Protein: Cyanate hydratase
Amino acid sequence: MKDTFEVPAMMTKEDVTMMILSAKKTAGLTWEEIAEKIDMSPVWTHSACMGMNGWPQDKAEAIVAVMGLPQEAVSVLEEPPTKVWEQSVPTDPCIYRLYEIVGVYGPTIKALIEEKFGTGIMSAIDFDMQITKVEHPKGDRVKLEMSGKFLAYNSW
Structure:
């Protein structure tokens, strides 16, 4: 890809996200293809492209090269995430269903985690997720597999 982006005086994560989305659309790439080119998972790649993860330098340089972004984007991608998102329930049907799952099964997930591990939480930082398509006679199914490090609550 060719570096064709106008570089703002003070580039932000939002600027870089828009550049990545524009380059992705122009190139006709999928998240899986982009992730493969930088040797990362598609889940992590998308999340990091949306500004929800800070990039290690080598991966920031790789995504900048793959997407044809200006070199100034590397340091922006390396910045720690702010993890800012809307706290209200979203109206997008797919994202809403994930909220619904947590609303219905959240207390169950918490109870079962505590029975198996003790009182604590599952990390969303030391975390991995896979999304796969499972063929099914009643209609294809979405399989989400999430794995996060258990973090026990500390008493101090």
Observations:
- The two ends are 53 Å apart (CA to CA).
- The chain has two domains: 13-78, 93-152.
- Residues 134 and 140 are 6 Å apart (CA to CA).
